[in-house]
From TrEMBL:
Residue ranges annotated for the Major facilitator superfamily (MFS) profile domain, each copy included: 25-320
One GO term describing the cellular component: membrane
Record organism: Centaurea solstitialis
Membrane topology, record value: Multi-pass membrane protein
Protein name: Major facilitator superfamily (MFS) profile domain-containing protein
Pfam families reported in the protein's UniProt record: Sugar_tr
Classification via Gene3D superfamilies: MFS general substrate transporter like domains
């Protein structure tokens, strides 16, 4: 995917520092990554627990016991079991088409909140499940949470003509990490827009972080995904040893712990300056928030560039 050339960057001119306000806000938001990783890692462990298989997938368990010569892949060849594991990803894919309009129309906080509530409901259903329907519906709700909180969708590369006050090419607004990038590149008479419309958490981190540290903050999200996977596997290792055959309930229900942090935290998280500008809030309100986030009153350059970037983004009529 090609974009226009970049001759220079003005991100260095922005006055900003990492404040405790930004760190705390991003830590709360990044729990969305922990939940995502936890949901990825937890299913593999519970589907290997004897009590879990006996309750929901007895055919799979009997195949494991009776036929010891076939591979584990063939033993777990069950459409019902596949429905349990894959329903999260299918629900996440579908939910992301609804999450994008919500994020654009109402801001990042509502999307984070919806994702957190869906995570909580899914964890509750999974932990309390007494039949396969509750189990799969709970997994679907977890997928909805993933779709609203963590996933992304690609938008078409657009080019728009514009008369700019500065002659040299400049980077107006960008964020980059290993797996995500949002950017708007401006030159003398063209604007090249490469837009990955992130759902709430990665986008929130990108907009809250100072430009020079934006990649590091987004890598923190990737790190949280890894922490979630590790936590799920360690918990599965412990719960499988619980006598009574209910350890799998703890594994599934414990997703509610990070989900509670995300949901409650979302109620207190500030909206990002870019989101305030995007939703036509009072410019002074957006500027004051940017000053608070950056830890300085001298934010004129970044504020002007954010306003210009948002005005240009409105020219995208047909994203895909």
């Amino acid at each position: 995917m090609a974009v226009g050339p970049v001759a220079g960057s003005e991100s260095g001119k922005y006055n900003a520092r990492i404040t405790s306000f930004v760190v705390l806000s991003c830590m709360v938001a990044a729990t969305g990554g922990i939940i995502f990783g936890y949901d990825i890692g937890i299913s593999g462990g519970v589907t290997s627990m004897k009590p879990f298989l006996l309750k929901f997938f007895p055919d799979v368990y009997n195949k494991r016991i009776k036929d010891t010569k076939i591979s584990n892949y063939c033993k777990f060849d069950s459409q019902l079991l596949t429905s349990f594991t894959s329903s999260l990803y299918i629900a996440g894919l579908i939910a992301t088409f609804f999450a994008s309009p919500v994020t654009r129309a109402f801001g990042r906080k509502p999307s984070i909140l919806i994702g957190g509530v869906a995570f909580l409901a899914g964890a509750a259903l999974g932990g309390a499940a007494y039949n396969i329907y509750m189990l799969i519906v709970g997994r679907v709700l977890l997928g909805v949470g993933v779709g609203f909180a963590n996933q992304l969708k690609l938008y078409e590369l657009k080019r728009a003509k514009s008369e700019l006050s500065r002659a040299r090419t400049r980077l107006v607004y960008s964020s980059f990490s290993l797996s995500n990038f949002t950017g708007l590149l401006a030159s003398n008479n063209h604007i090249f827009i490469l837009s990955y419309d992130h759902q709430s958490v990665p986008l929130y981190l990108s907009e809250m972080a100072p430009s020079r540290y934006r990649g590091a903050f987004n890598m923190g999200f990737q790190f949280c995904v890894g922490v979630g996977v590790l936590s799920a596997n360690l918990l599965n290792y412990g719960t499988q040893k619980i006598n009574g055959g209910w350890g799998w309930r703890i594994s599934l229900a414990m997703a509610a712990f990070p989900a509670s942090i995300l949901t409650i935290g979302a109620l207190f998280l500030p909206e990002t300056p870019n989101s305030l500008i995007q939703h036509n809030a009072d410019p002074n309100t957006a500027k004051k928030m940017l000053q608070k986030v950056r830890g300085t009153d001298d934010v004129h350059a970044e504020f002007d560039d954010l306003v210009a970037a948002n005005e240009t983004s409105k020219t995208i009529k047909h994203p895909f």
